[in-house]
Specification:
6 copies of one chain form a homohexamer. Chain A is α/β, with parallel strands linked by helices. Helix content of chain A is 41%, strand content 13%. Chains D and F meet through helix 5, helix 8 and helix 9 of D and helix 5, helix 8 and helix 9 of F. Chains A, B, C, D, E, F: It comes from Actinopolyspora erythraea.
């Protein structure tokens, strides 16, 4: 065989779960990375409603799909983000947003992340992909001058807020796969190093490999995979395209909406950008990653109904198996 | 659907129009960008011969092809080119060449361009693609020293010769799409700026976007599309390939014939070169271009019968539709 | 001669103004770009204290230094920044910080900027360089999804807060030179376009050209100079060095302190980085900029006492005069 | 048609010849480049065993495969290599290795190469592809200081050892196609120049074009093809992939095994690397090469059963025919 | 010492020869490359006027300057250029321009070039640097389609016009050093190959190495030096600067005047551009070039009085001597 | 002050030690990195001859030079190199070469390296820079196929031969600084990792940082410094220049002698090549390296008498001191 290829349902949560399952199955996906928003996977109902989990499994089985991971980026974002504002209100369940008091939002989101671990265990998966937000991301430009103690406090706050969450993950036998991404506590190589240090490299904290966030920042996905090879819990094939040699576009994006040709980079359909996928897949083979490969599809310039099956074909083609013997073995076949 | 994909017939004018139509249709093209040479579209006959235009339309209909534009590069070239010589004689109808006296040639060519506008209107299309030639292109190297007044005179001569032509275009409700190209009054970004200024940005003068001429000169097709977005009347998917890191080949081409591997760049089958097509198509979507996409196929190293259908498939694949809603809309589907 | 070369005193404000003046003069600087912090230029005292301005001028004259501009980055930053926190407290005068209530801070800072225009006029300069902060910078990563209306509101808030400030600038005959910089309302090419639009391109808002912020974002300083040539009020020769091909360092800097070799870019002594200074100076000549060239010196890896005179020599060498006649005029001297 | 596409059997010699022939045929290959090891082509048996050659031909015919060349890299390597050690023992027939005395090994290998020419002639092909080894390759780093006379002696030794071999090739009407490759007497452009000089440019010594060895060394395959166009006897489409911008991997490979992601370059399935194949094929057309195109498939990261048919499709697609007339002929079709 | 460094007087011909000599001497130049225009060296007077040559020599001696070469670019240009127009009139002596009839101009220019060889011999130098013009340069863009016979005729015309000129050079013991340059019969590597072929590689035709014309065309000055090493008669250190990654500027220059920042490349003061001078000088050493190094100074953005001495210092610094023994000889000094 | 700058005497060993000392002192060097060949430092005499060491110190003191390290590259090379041949004979003392039997040479060289540690201690320095040779370097091209066990055996042999040598270093309180270099057991990043592992990361084995060997192999000197920051014992400022975009030159050097322009890279005078020195020096500051900076001068294209003082000036200029406080401290000086 080789690794299963799944579709992340996060960008399809405006559609009913069953419809997404049906389409993914028809396109040939092997499974889903299910988002914990929309009606795709409702953590509260999963823990309280009889048969909720069973019915989800039935949908998957009906469409011959597997599921190896849940994803809860949106709630995770709110656990230690700063500032908390209308952007969060737009993506959170009303009961988590509540009155919008920032600290209350963060605490309710943390509770819900703990529940996500519990629900994942019930659902029979041992990984949750997601975000953490960050107390210090907004200081990224280092002006006004950001004291180093402020940075240290940020990592400490992350640890203080997430250690109790990860305790529940440990209790449930589930691991959290942090997607390294701008606005998270870890958004590049060295912040990943420091975030892992902040929680003492505890086993519960792993990584979701999504290289679309690396290429425009300029660090190497293969180096990331190799150095964090024992932390890679999941892979998202999201794609980015850089266009920055025209004299005017900038890598910070100019507050321009996705899809605007003046942006210095953009998300595009997997295979249409600058992630060195072939090197990534070869390295995934080399480090022995055998979990699912998930297509996270975002492209403001292409209809998703065209993109999703095309991305599957692209990934399928790269998801090849390494050989069992060295090729130059054939040279010594003499006797 | 999306934009129609047409085949430019200019490089096929050694074949009868009907045969080209038949092949294009069989390959799956949606229509033709018809050249005004060979028997493909004869301006004089179109204006004088009863049924000429109707018979052309019938051929198109028979093969289920549309036509949205005529192209008259060769005659346009002669309208204000300098010097006029055997190269022009080779590409002009004998009655336009006449005795070969340069000024006579230019005037007859201008008359014929006016007729082209009239014939286009009769034919039911509102755009003519073409060239202009240039009184100053031959001074491009700036040696012997070229006084700036000589350059200014060149743009003025272009305006003087073309304003009367564009008057007829205006009268006919047709616009002229200048293909920015070496040897034309506009061959790069800044000469395009200046050519538009020369005619006071009159509406009749638009642009045919053919990025094959941009990549070896080193300016960016996406920037061109964005900045001239209200002038882009037509798109030609011609392709160029640059090969200039071998120490010996030069970007000016060394007077070597097309296809010679010592050249620093060459025209190749669409998709085999260095035009950033994906960025171009995304930008065409972003600026709302909804006209035809025409394959202008030139490749001295490949049989055209192989290349034309392959280029169609390549372009068809890029000619995708943008989505109707933002992808991150799905994140806020909670309530 | 040519343009005067000044030293920006902002990074030297821990030293008494007179000492900075003495050193700058000894190194050979022609003048100072005086910071409105430390004891270098105190806006409140300048407006209220008899002789304050005269004494400043005397210091300058004593050291044979000119001054063409005041700079008030720190107060400007607070006028419409978000969030307001300890970083601002560290850089603001106590009376502006007050109780730290964000809206109060912003208003007091705006008052002080108006006073800065008045003080500049009194001091005899007609330009103030500075920052604005930004209501939307912190959303730069576009996640959680940032609605376009939120971006529009940000520019509008900038206009609403700054139009009254600029009214005072107009009254005083002083112009404000915004330094395009991350965390400001304009941090790259396209945000500059939009910030100028937001205030209706009113004359009072110009630009301080500091290309150190451009090179790691990937947009071209020469293009910026050319396109905004009628807005360039002042030039800061600050320098940046990019180091992003090592597989691990990222352009966002990883929250690492200045000078850490793991950062993807850093500020360095002018001439030690990747700003294309020669092209910048040639373009400054071409657009007719004739104001001061100011060395803004920041380098966490070099002692400033070494750097400041070296930077002066570097800039002096580039600050050459263009010729009065075309070189190829000599070819036609025959008759 | 166009040139036949063959599969080099060297990396498949652990399988019986007939099985390789069957698979190659099923995948669609036009023929085989047969390796003289394993049971694929045994030079000694070919010269001594009645019907051996006829039976090989019958296998080919049964599977509708052609053969235009034999390959004997392994024996060739031993003819003038230094040092001779266990690596050679692993790839040589026991009777050639003998007691392993280096000079004896070299002489027996030379004898066998002469026999290879004879066997090739019997088999009906007029080219043998192969290696030569090198007396001086191991000094490539130039430290300890390598006297130039030592280098000269190396080329002379090559000539002394190979002229007698090439005499037999001449006698048999067969030419030897040296694969330019590290560890051979010629491993790059300038060593090829010098190796040809060493044997006085005798006709019997030609070249096997295998650009996989060029790209990581940094010289241009197209330049190689053009300058040695009258020596190109055969083409191997082997592929290499370079990955050297991560700060740590080096082009010399760090003694790491093939397929290790820390290597600076690697062999990969044809079409997955950095050889500029399109330019190579266009140049092969331009220089009139009309022999077979052989897929030499090596990829430590991909199963060969997947790779071999994919590589064929890749090469088939590039193996296009040039046109018979110039495309701009169509512009002059007027009269 | 090493090679003398001279100043080319062509761009200073608006000044009297003696003044240029005085300034060059004061700046420290070792000699002059004297232009045959202005009053610098008048070929007709040199051949007819008693003492003209002696007086020139006296000026040189007075200022302690050598001279090893005359330059006659302007007249050379007219010998086989096409078209001949006002640009030529501006740079030719009135008696050569005459009535401006093109063929008459070409013939008179050819006569004057023959005289230049004679005058050079009289003056005691054995090389003349210059241009040739070209009958086919203006067809460089290959549109309208340029038949290959037209190109061939162009080279033939060059040979027909220049062989008689070179006969006189031979008679006088003088060689002509063609400066490879756009608008000349040879403007890049491959046109140089063909121009040399056109005159049968006769010894009288050599080359003036001026790499400023190579860098924006994209071919390698070191390769040029190596391959034409037996033809390099003289060296001009002219400099070019390329700026083509801003999305809008193009390598053909947009008819914009020198010094305009929108141009894709420009001439600049030696050392301020992209010629790989260090590699060039090392290669000049390697090929044993021992003639003068001449600074040809052109920079539309810098005052020449600043540039000329700075360029001398730059070149002086590169004009270093190679060692007499190998550095690793020191490793073997043991016994 | 800052770190002392020394001259490595290895390339000057054809001259008497005292003469080198005199010249280095006159040029302004602070000290010498003394080579253990020529008469510069003779290990055997140092250990046996009374006053030898004292007299060396006197020479240094007379010329006001310091010495912090001895270098014994040549003997180190022989300790575990393979093959041993005339190249070694040329660089070894006769008594070490002896009868040239390889194993005997290796053992005598090992003895002499132990003595070098003893002599260094006597001489009062605690570091010896040098080479090790390698049992497996010659297999670097991996053809004939190199079994991984052969590679493992190579590292083991290095450990077996060097552990006893390093024991003596430990006894003497001296550390060995291996120069990572082709033909050594460690020649790039990953081989350095493995060599350190092979000896169990024992403290006695450190590194000599010489980035000239890194740039043409393509790995990053700054990454090397950072990751091995606790092993950097010494710094050699040797320089390399890469020239590999001409289509023909290759990175392996084509067996061409140093200084030949056809080579793909070469050693050049420090500051004339592609080592990113500024980044290196900044990183040396960042990791707290406070030992000597040694100019190892090799340039086959420049006279060393010119190069050595120029290199000193170049290095002196980069050897700047970092500041004691953060630059943005000045922003908070308000209260």
């Amino acid at each position: 065989m080789s690794r299963p290829i799944t579709l992340f349902t996060g960008q399809w949560a405006d559609l009913p779960f069953e419809e997404v399952a049906r389409m993914a199955s028809e396109w040939g996906y092997d499974g889903l990375e299910i988002a914990c928003w929309g009606d795709h996977f409702e953590v509260d109902r999963a823990l309280t409603e009889e048969n909720y989990i069973r019915r989800k499994r039935e949908v998957l089985e009906k469409h011959n799909l597997g599921c190896w991971v849940l994803s809860n980026h949106l709630l995770g974002q709110a656990t230690c983000d700063y500032p908390i504002d209308e952007r969060h209100r737009n993506i959170l369940p009303p009961e988590v947003w509540g009155d919008g008091d920032p600290e209350g939002v963060r605490r309710r989101a943390a509770d819900r992340m703990r529940d996500t671990a519990r629900a994942a265990a019930e659902f029979g998966v041992d990984k949750v992909v997601g975000f953490t937000g960050s107390p210090i991301w907004y200081t990224v430009a280092m002006f006004p001058p950001t004291p180093d103690e402020m940075v240290q406090r940020g990592y400490q706050e992350f640890a203080d807020r997430w250690n109790p969450i990860l305790d529940v993950f440990d209790d449930c036998g589930v691991r959290f796969a942090l997607e390294v991404h701008p606005t998270e506590i870890a958004y590049d190589y060295w912040t990943t190093v420091r975030a892992l240090e902040a929680v003492g490299h505890r086993r519960a904290l792993g990584l979701n490999f999504d290289p679309s966030h690396y290429v425009w920042q300029g660090f190497d996905p293969v180096t990331f995979l190799w150095d964090f090879r024992d932390r890679i819990l999941h892979v998202d094939c999201k794609e980015a395209r850089v266009r920055s040699n025209d004299g005017r576009s900038g890598l910070l994006g100019s507050h321009l909406p996705w899809g605007d040709p003046r942006r210095g980079w953009d998300f595009v359909s997997t295979g249409h950008g600058h992630v060195p996928w072939e090197d990534c897949f070869r390295t995934l083979n080399a480090i022995g990653y055998d979990g699912p490969i998930s297509v996270e599809w975002e492209d403001a310039g292409m209809d998703r109904l065209r993109g999703a099956p095309e991305a599957l074909e692209f990934v399928r083609n790269l998801n090849f198996t390494p050989p069992s013997t060295a090729f130059d073995a054939a040279f010594g076949s003499e006797g």
